[in-house]
Amino acid sequence: MWPFSGERARRVVIAGGGTGGHLFPGVAVVEAIEQLDPSVDVAFVGSPRGIEARAIPKLGYDLELIDVPMLNGAGAAGWARGLVQLPGSGFGAMGAIKRLNPGLVVSVGGYAAGPFTMLASMRGIPCALMEQNSTPGMTNRLLGKVVDQAFVSFEKTREFFPNIPCDFVGNPVRKSLLDLAEGFEYEAPEEGREFRILIIGGSGGAASFNSKLPADFCALGEQGANLRIRHQCGRGRVAEVDGGYSDFAGEAEVVEFIDDMAEAYKWCDLLICRAGASTIAEVLVLGIPAIYVPFPHAADDHQTKNAQAIAEAGAGIMIADSDVGQGRATRLLAGLLQNPISLQNLARKARTLGRPDAATIIAQKCIEML
Fold first, then answer.
1. pLDDT tens-digit profile of 108-133?
2. Are residues 290 and 308 in the same domain?
3. Are residues 161 and 267 in the same domain?
4. Burial class of residue 203, CB neighbours in 10 A (0-12, 13-18, 19+)
């Protein structure tokens, strides 16, 4: 028998994940909950295929895994297979609810959030959602019809959740980066100092960054002699990408992964990156000038919409993925090298958009909803 509503534990369960962009804002909220009220228990529910299956155990939190099929973009055959598997996902979610006995469920998006949050809502358990992107994904769009509260990272996202309380709070950022932000102030490089560029394409790297950006930098010739590049390329690609910098006049360090992102952000004068919501949130909190290159195949093209919102505010520069390797990135870079004031202005505007208190605001509301 399932617990009655009066027997619910003081436990917040973060549901969903799949990617770091979904998962780590949830981790940031859990860190804030533990600081505000250590008596509140926390746990996670996710998919065995998602990043949470590896990341959450390392962080020491309880984790329940539910095998939920991917439907969005799966095609007709994928939908058919997924619909056959959905009943099993429902039973898995029911079992997880029984074992965890949540007092509050918070969806961070991703497929595993769907059945668990939906069934928790049907049981009368308070539920909320966190939407990181300017345009919600399929799971959170559906859950917006049944949850009690939404937290969004972009003001315009409120229009997707008209029938529930919806707070514009920003996207929660990990504590290690918040600690850095407290004492960090960006300074554009002075004339004559090396110019440091950080290139990150997500945990798996970015194909266009790996295959095209090295040639772009080599094309700068002696104009690039003062550049220092740190290029995160993903697993098994170091030799190939490093070879692309063979004719580069500056210095390039190519690595599979960057474990200490706080140190990497602090090191760089300019960031070239994708436009995932979590990356944007981190960059804004720190106030770093960035060139955003949206991943062209993101669901609902949400990365383009994320980057457009930042570019329209003058807090970053956006170029299309198709422009990488066409010389536009290097032309932009050449202009920025000659105009450090523009870098300082980008950093200043980015910092004004940062929301370092997002995790604390959401955590406080979660505690109130228990």
1. 998 889 999 999 999 999 999 999 99
2. yes
3. no
4. middle
